[in-house]
Amino acid sequence: MPARISALTGRSSFICAQCRKALTAPKRRRLLSTSPKTPEIYDVVTVGGGPAGLALLAALKSSPVTSHLKTALIEIQDLTKPRQWSSPGDQFSNRASSFTPSSVSFLETTGSWAHVDQTRIQAYDEMQVWDAANDASIQFDWNAETQKYNAPPQTIATMCENANLTRGLLERIVELGAGSSLFSSTSVSSIENGVDDPEGLNLSTWPVLSLESQSQPHSQSQSAGQPPSDTPNPTPTNIAARLLVGADGFNSPVRAFAGINSSGWDYNRHGVVATLTLQPADSNTATDRTHDFDLFSSEPLPNRATAYQRFLPQLGGPIAILPLPHDRASMVWSTTPANAAYLKSLPPSAQVAMINAALRLSQTDLKYLLSLPAHSHSDSAKTDTDADTDANVQHETELRWRLEHTDSAPADLTRQQPPPFVTGIQENSLASFPLRFRHATSLINPRVALIGDAAHTIHPLAGQGLNLGLADAKSLAECIAYSVSHGMDVGDAMALERYSSARFGRGLMMAGGVDVLNSLYQLGSGGDGMLASVVGQARGLGMKVVNQLVPGLKGLIMRQAS
Amino acid sequence: MRATTPSSLTRLLALPSPLRVRTFSVLSRPPPNYPGHIPLTIPERLSLAAGSAIGSLFNPYRHDLIASLGETTAKPYFLSRLHRAMLNNPTGRRILRDRPRITSKSMKLEELRHMPENSVGRAYAAWLDREGVTPDTRDAVRYIDDPEEAYVMQRYRETHDFTHAITGLPVIIEGELAVKAFEFANTLLPMTALSLVAIVRLKKVERQRFFEVYMPWALRNGLKAEEVINVYWEEELETDVEVLRARLGIEKPPDLRDIRKALREQKRKEREAKEAAG
Hints:
The structure holds two protein chains of two kinds. By secondary structure, chain A is of the alpha+beta class. Chain A has helices spanning 17-24, 51-62, 80-83, 101-109, 143-148, 162-175, 219-222, 253-258, 283-286, 337-345, 348-360, 363-371, 386-392, 394-405, 465-485, 493-520, 530-549, 553-561, and strands at 40-47, 71-74, 96-99, 122-124, 126-131, 137-141, 157-161, 182-183, 186-193, 207-213, 238-246, 262-278, 306-312, 317-324, 328-335, 422-425, 431-440, 444-445, 448-450, 456-457. By secondary structure, chain B is mainly alpha-helical. The model of chain B is unreliable at 1-13 and 16-21 (pLDDT under 50). The interface between A and B is medium-sized, with 27 and 24 residues.
């Protein structure tokens, strides 16, 4: 116990060795000023300006408990472009995601959902899932509950373009006055532990980021009339983070810095995305895309929109059609890289034929269609001979012939609608990305937390990937708020345990569950043999059981997924 | 008014339609999917299969029983597999598009007899003449529900004679059993395997010959050959038989009629020698 020191009077009691050294040392310890070498200290530094990182920042800034924290968000791309994103009303980006009610509720609470363009989102009330290997199907909807209470249809999920959400989040962040936290066009050249400055701070356990600005002198963008609060400060070169949040995607440098491994596997599949135009179903359902329901009607209230997913085990995965406004839809088709390359090489009319075929024809017919020579549209510069025209329409003629002979009415016709007809595909919207499964071995380390794709990447068949990221952001924001309101260091490992215990198990179970589902629906993919047929029928029996026989099982699944 | 939802117990006890065994009753048969179609319930199908099997075993000339045996045992998997084999092959797809039928009108024997020597058409006409049959003896398919699968069954039936023609096997029981064994290995239809029960009707010598020569030939060639259902016979009439056999991967088996004739000659000579001696 050090004795009291009276430096003025020189009267001394016992002085411990360290204090004596400190007092007698010739140099004085700086307490309130930082040396030029000391990096600027931020409370929460988020690396990555994707939906998860931006949602976390918006959540922190919108809550009165955490809005005073000094935050930074580092993003390598120029964030002015996403802020200024706009698109004609009838064109939709091919990166659109399905947002569960929990995600939407989180975005509403933080005030970001109000900035999302509501004319470009589509809530859907029903999801139909069926399998090409059998005639079973499952309809996911809340009808059983809503009919009990004579209520309008309850949303399963809402489709929204990723760019629409990002713009909304950025606008909310700026509205909250946190535009200065955004370090756009900045790359992180390295992350290291800080140094223990003997006359300054001991940052040896703190992450210190070296930033490099990628932008050119921005005289033009700054003269575009941005209010002063938006203009970011000149980028400092070194910043230290009390809590470093990795929202930087699949190959997360933050995760690498923290030494956290990420295990998993590549699916050897590509997700082919596109924006499609659908044939309007009937005249009366076309007008029911509004959110108004006639609550006094004695008719069952119609669904606003329906999502469709058809599993194609022999072709590598499911094709999903997710509705967008104005009879548009977003397609995600998980298939082998060879099939993805083939689809990309087809002319648009053949692509439309292939998508219609994928929703209706047998897998044998689909495999045959995928083996037809792809007539590349670069050859259209040549004069069209008859052979060329025939080759051009091969897919359509095959489709039309096979549709006549394919029994598309499944055995169970209780409430099912047939899948929609695709009439067009938006120009240049067909693209593909590789599918992978990864999960970090830990979500936290001292002073490090991971959210979004840095923590986990999953198969898109359940539409849960982005929702997991948003749930992580919500949970981490709550954890930070708890730490702040209880006077704890937000980056302390024990404080972060709260976040990890809330999200690690949940995220892993969702990722693992989706992976098991994917494997289940790839069984019987090895050819047309008897075993494959039996496996397909067994799976169909399982689907029928889930759909009708076991009461409450479907509701349980839907509750988990929302 | 909305219907009240049934309680969970009622729902558990009443199996939903996909899990129920019978999908329609005999008093309310669904309408036919093509002319001549007769939808059957599952007990009807099983009893027809059993009856046809026993009946055709006792009287192998009852081609209608063999036909109904084939149709009632071909579903759920085997006919679909054959259908898929046709869809996977470009020629098979063309056959399904064009749907050619083999009748005495479409296969004019006069023209076939004048085709080049060793052509498929000539071999077919020669075989028909040798065995004394015409292309018209095939029954129409009735008990298959899907019209396209019904056509596949019909096509199999009508091209059965072509299989005889290019292998040279005769219509006697031994020859038919050899062709059926070949067809089982090639098409996997259960009726072809069930027909092999008729081996019990063969004489001892014939049975021995069958197991030694013809069944091994049939199984070996049926497995390694291409799917014979995918051959567009109407286009192959002028092809050389050897060329077609080589393309399909089929060896010609020993001529059965010649073997039997040689054996009969040998027996006759022995009998005469015995009578002359005794």
